[in-house]
Design a protein that fits this description.
The protein is α+β, with helices and mostly antiparallel strands. The chain contains 13 helices and 19 strands.
Length: about 475
């Protein structure tokens, strides 16, 4: 058994036994992938690379990496150019606190490299790093904090059904849902991931855990650590967790409402304006308004990146608190982009805007890239960018079509096919993503839509037409 001697993400810096390391990365669909190795092999490789770098004996391959077959990963290389590398990012090393002897395991997120050791341009993690670097060059940091909703299900015959009959903020001492959320949060704390809050959501069997605000790249990793933990805890209780946006008709779906802000490089919140006028008491800075204008301009175009599945668009319908219309409001939950309620004391550090369209089926690296790029275009004053429209404080669901037209409120795409079309006709996709990635992403989304729309006969059709 090998003892981990260096500092890791645990705040108490205590020693942990580790026998295996999972080299983790994500594919174009956001699915987790990993190759595992004994810790001795991992530690020896990292040590050897560090010594070579210190001695400057090698100017090229001084990093520890693991070869893999990129042609077997969704959206990666072709079979004739399949050799690729994984380079561990030591800052992401996390011991999985539920693993026990003799299988104590850590995970480390990897950068994906070409066979020549160059960053792989179609790696979702790399694309997010690229846009965050553009923020830094302007003296900005893009920060996010997502609220992840999910269902926990139990088996009922051949069906999966909600594990409880709870409702919003359901609470009963000793409740199993409460206990599972507490277990999840305890594990997260032990990995250095800080939950903000947890509670039962509106639908039976539905729960939410919100993660602390952080740099977007770190937050994307935290989403994966959260999902892994949720799945593990649910399985240990004999249940199944799902991040499907709309698993049950007639019930609220699961979103991933994402709070966003921009700070300077010293951490000062740039969305806060200490001044207020009789007309505008929002305390939103001009930079914040430009950021919001950029996201509203591109919201239809970036929808497929933040709500990427056929099922996503069964959530984005009126009547279940999911956003449908492109507008913003102050505390208005029918708006796609809203300004959460805050006291004046909270605003200086906590001023933020909440985007309500994303759902937990998304790849957070891709979603945050699109969101960051849309906001950047607004802040950077891109050509054709207009100012922030007036907020909508009425319930947009209850407006007539004519009333929405008069207020210039338009709808999000109604299905995956339309969302992909909106992405392809926009310059956002070329700003945020390279051509190779977009071709692969578009091909996969079109195939998903075709499989669903053309090749499936649903129970509804059988019931109605047979």
């Amino acid at each position: 058994m090998v003892v981990l001697q260096r500092s890791i993400t645990l705040e108490d810096r205590s020693e942990r036994h580790v026998n295996f390391v999972d080299l983790l990365f994500v594919d174009i669909d956001g699915m987790r992938k990993a190759v595992s190795m004994p810790y001795e092999r991992y530690a020896a490789g990292m040590k050897e690379a560090a010594l070579k770098k210190a001695e400057q004996k090698d100017k090229e391959d001084v990093e520890f990496y693991k070869w893999f077959d990129g042609s077997s990963i969704a959206g990666f290389n072709s079979i004739e150019n399949s050799d690729m590398r994984l380079k561990p990012d030591e800052s992401t090393f996390h011991v999985l606190p539920w693993t026990e002897s003799p299988f104590e395991t850590a995970v480390v997120l990897c950068d994906v490299l070409t066979k020549d050791g160059e960053p792989y341009t179609d790696d979702p993690k790399q694309m997010l790093k690229n846009i965050l670097e553009r923020y830094k060059k302007n003296g900005w940091l893009y920060k996010v904090g997502s609220e992840v909703e999910f269902f926990i299900l139990k088996k009922d015959g051949d069906r999966w059904v909600p594990h409880d009959a709870g409702e919003y903020f359901h609470f009963k001492p000793g409740d199993e849902g409460e206990r599972m959320r507490q277990e999840i949060c305890n594990y997260l704390f032990r990995m250095g991931v800080k939950p903000e809050a947890h509670h039962h959501e509106v639908a039976p069997g539905q729960h939410e855990i919100a993660i602390e605000f952080d740099d977007a790249e770190k937050s994307a990793l935290n989403i994966y650590l959260l999902k892994m933990t949720i799945e593990y805890v649910a399985s240990q209780h004999g249940y199944r967790a799902t991040f499907m946006p709309k698993p049950f008709a007639g019930m609220n779906g699961s979103g991933m409402h994402t709070h966003q802000s921009v700070s300077d490089l010293e951490g000062k919140n740039l969305f806060y304006n200490p001044e207020e006028t009789e007309k505008d008491k929002s305390h939103l800075s001009d930079l914040a308004k430009k950021f919001m204008a950029g996201q509203l301009k591109y919201l239809e175009n970036m929808c497929v990146f933040i709500a990427p599945t056929v099922n996503s668009y069964k959530r984005l319908i009126p009547g279940y608190e999911a956003p449908v219309y492109v507008c913003w409001g102050k505390q208005n939950r029918s708006a796609a982009l809203r300004l959460p309620a805050m006291t004046k004391e909270e605003m200086e550090k906590g001023m933020r805007v909440e985007l309500r369209c994303p759902d937990p089926s998304c790849n957070p690296y891709i979603a945050y890239t699109a969101m960051a790029m849309a906001g950047f275009e607004g802040m950077d004053g891109a050509p054709g960018m207009s100012g922030l429209p007036e907020p909508i404080e009425e319930n947009a669901y209850k407006m007539t079509a004519d009333e929405r037209d008069e207020r210039n409120i338009y709808s999000l795409p109604s299905n995956l096919d339309r969302a992909m079309t909106e992405a392809n006709i926009s310059n956002l996709q070329s700003l945020a993503f390279n051509e190779s990635f977009m071709q692969k992403f578009s091909d996969r989304k079109r195939a998903e839509w075709r499989d669903y729309h053309s090749f499936q006969v649903t129970p509804w059709e059988i019931e109605k037409y047979l």
